[in-house]
Amino acid sequence: MPTCNTFRIPTRRQHVPTARHYVRKALAGWGIADELADRAILSANELVTNAVTHCRVSHARVRVTLILCGRELVLEVSDPDRDRPPRPRDPGPDEEGGRGLALVAALADSWGHRQGPYTKCVWARFRLTEAEGARVPVGS
Protein backbone atom coordinates (compact mmCIF):
# COMPACT_ATOMS: atom_id res chain seq x y z
CA MET A 1 0.00 0.00 0.00
CA PRO A 2 1.57 3.34 -1.02
CA THR A 3 2.07 6.11 1.47
CA CYS A 4 1.14 9.59 0.30
CA ASN A 5 1.65 13.13 1.59
CA THR A 6 0.08 16.12 -0.18
CA PHE A 7 0.11 19.83 0.59
CA ARG A 8 -0.63 23.07 -1.25
CA ILE A 9 1.12 26.42 -1.30
CA PRO A 10 0.24 29.76 -2.93
CA THR A 11 1.95 30.60 -6.22
CA ARG A 12 4.34 33.05 -4.60
CA ARG A 13 8.12 32.72 -4.45
CA GLN A 14 8.20 33.39 -0.70
CA HIS A 15 6.40 30.05 -0.17
CA VAL A 16 9.08 27.91 -1.86
CA PRO A 17 10.98 27.45 1.46
CA THR A 18 7.69 26.25 3.01
CA ALA A 19 7.46 23.57 0.32
CA ARG A 20 11.05 22.46 1.03
CA HIS A 21 10.23 22.27 4.75
CA TYR A 22 7.15 20.08 4.17
CA VAL A 23 9.06 17.77 1.80
CA ARG A 24 11.93 17.43 4.28
CA LYS A 25 9.48 16.69 7.12
CA ALA A 26 7.57 14.04 5.10
CA LEU A 27 10.77 12.30 4.03
CA ALA A 28 12.14 12.29 7.59
CA GLY A 29 8.87 10.77 8.78
CA TRP A 30 9.38 7.95 6.31
CA GLY A 31 12.99 7.44 7.37
CA ILE A 32 14.39 8.86 4.14
CA ALA A 33 17.49 10.93 4.76
CA ASP A 34 20.96 11.61 3.45
CA GLU A 35 21.63 11.74 -0.28
CA LEU A 36 18.18 10.65 -1.46
CA ALA A 37 16.47 13.25 0.73
CA ASP A 38 18.85 15.92 -0.55
CA ARG A 39 18.09 14.99 -4.19
CA ALA A 40 14.33 14.95 -3.60
CA ILE A 41 14.31 18.24 -1.66
CA LEU A 42 16.41 20.01 -4.30
CA SER A 43 14.17 18.62 -7.05
CA ALA A 44 11.08 19.82 -5.16
CA ASN A 45 12.68 23.24 -4.80
CA GLU A 46 13.27 23.47 -8.55
CA LEU A 47 9.84 22.17 -9.59
CA VAL A 48 7.96 24.36 -7.09
CA THR A 49 10.03 27.38 -8.11
CA ASN A 50 9.13 26.72 -11.75
CA ALA A 51 5.45 26.34 -10.88
CA VAL A 52 5.23 29.57 -8.88
CA THR A 53 7.33 31.47 -11.42
CA HIS A 54 5.54 30.40 -14.59
CA CYS A 55 1.91 29.78 -13.52
CA ARG A 56 -0.29 32.49 -15.02
CA VAL A 57 -3.52 31.57 -13.23
CA SER A 58 -4.61 34.20 -10.69
CA HIS A 59 -4.84 33.11 -7.06
CA ALA A 60 -3.66 29.62 -7.92
CA ARG A 61 -2.15 27.13 -5.54
CA VAL A 62 0.59 24.63 -6.28
CA ARG A 63 -0.01 21.06 -5.12
CA VAL A 64 2.99 19.01 -4.02
CA THR A 65 2.52 15.27 -3.60
CA LEU A 66 5.05 12.73 -2.35
CA ILE A 67 4.25 9.06 -2.90
CA LEU A 68 6.29 6.28 -1.38
CA CYS A 69 5.48 2.96 -2.98
CA GLY A 70 7.77 0.00 -2.42
CA ARG A 71 11.28 1.04 -3.41
CA GLU A 72 10.24 4.17 -5.28
CA LEU A 73 9.64 7.76 -4.22
CA VAL A 74 7.56 9.92 -6.56
CA LEU A 75 7.46 13.71 -6.33
CA GLU A 76 4.64 15.47 -8.18
CA VAL A 77 4.19 19.24 -8.49
CA SER A 78 0.92 20.37 -10.05
CA ASP A 79 -0.50 23.76 -10.96
CA PRO A 80 -3.61 24.90 -12.86
CA ASP A 81 -1.73 26.41 -15.81
CA ARG A 82 -2.24 23.26 -17.89
CA ASP A 83 -1.50 24.85 -21.26
CA ARG A 84 2.09 25.80 -20.34
CA PRO A 85 4.04 22.51 -20.23
CA PRO A 86 7.61 22.59 -18.93
CA ARG A 87 10.26 23.17 -21.55
CA PRO A 88 13.90 22.36 -20.80
CA ARG A 89 16.17 25.21 -21.85
CA ASP A 90 19.80 25.59 -22.73
CA PRO A 91 20.62 28.89 -21.03
CA GLY A 92 23.75 30.84 -21.79
CA PRO A 93 26.55 30.96 -19.22
CA ASP A 94 25.54 34.45 -18.06
CA GLU A 95 21.83 33.67 -17.58
CA GLU A 96 20.73 33.33 -13.96
CA GLY A 97 17.85 30.91 -14.56
CA GLY A 98 16.75 28.18 -16.90
CA ARG A 99 18.62 25.22 -15.39
CA GLY A 100 15.94 23.81 -13.08
CA LEU A 101 14.65 21.02 -15.30
CA ALA A 102 18.20 19.98 -16.26
CA LEU A 103 19.00 19.80 -12.56
CA VAL A 104 15.92 17.66 -11.87
CA ALA A 105 16.88 15.39 -14.77
CA ALA A 106 20.33 14.94 -13.21
CA LEU A 107 19.00 14.31 -9.69
CA ALA A 108 16.03 12.03 -10.41
CA ASP A 109 16.03 8.56 -11.94
CA SER A 110 13.36 9.81 -14.33
CA TRP A 111 11.11 12.83 -14.76
CA GLY A 112 8.34 14.01 -17.02
CA HIS A 113 5.01 15.78 -17.12
CA ARG A 114 1.39 15.16 -17.91
CA GLN A 115 -1.65 17.33 -18.53
CA GLY A 116 -4.93 16.76 -16.76
CA PRO A 117 -8.26 18.34 -17.61
CA TYR A 118 -7.49 21.38 -15.44
CA THR A 119 -3.86 21.05 -14.37
CA LYS A 120 -0.40 20.06 -15.43
CA CYS A 121 1.83 17.89 -13.28
CA VAL A 122 5.60 17.67 -13.41
CA TRP A 123 6.93 14.54 -11.71
CA ALA A 124 10.25 13.07 -10.67
CA ARG A 125 10.92 9.47 -9.61
CA PHE A 126 13.66 8.27 -7.30
CA ARG A 127 14.59 4.64 -6.66
CA LEU A 128 15.41 3.73 -3.08
CA THR A 129 18.51 1.66 -2.49
CA GLU A 130 18.23 -1.48 -0.37
CA ALA A 131 19.59 0.41 2.63
CA GLU A 132 17.11 3.25 2.15
CA GLY A 133 14.24 0.82 1.66
CA ALA A 134 15.20 -0.99 4.86
CA ARG A 135 14.75 2.27 6.83
CA VAL A 136 11.25 2.91 5.47
CA PRO A 137 8.55 1.94 8.00
CA VAL A 138 6.61 -1.24 7.26
CA GLY A 139 3.33 -0.52 5.47
CA SER A 140 4.80 2.31 3.39
Describe this structure in words.
- Strand 4 (110-115) and strand 5 (120-127) form a beta hairpin.
- The chain starts with a strand and ends in a 5-residue tail after the last helix.
- 28% of the residues are buried.
- The protein has four helices and five strands.
- The chain has a single domain, classed as Histidine kinase-like ATPase, C-terminal domain (Heat Shock Protein 90), CATH 3.30.565.
- The protein has helices at 16-29, 34-54, 100-107, 130-135, and strands at 3-10, 61-69, 72-79, 110-115, 120-127.
- The chain has a five-stranded antiparallel sheet, covered by helices on one side.
- The protein is globular.
- The protein has 140 residues and is an alpha+beta fold.
- The mean pLDDT is 89.
Descriptive keywords:
5 strands; five-stranded antiparallel β-sheet; Heat Shock Protein 90; 140 residues
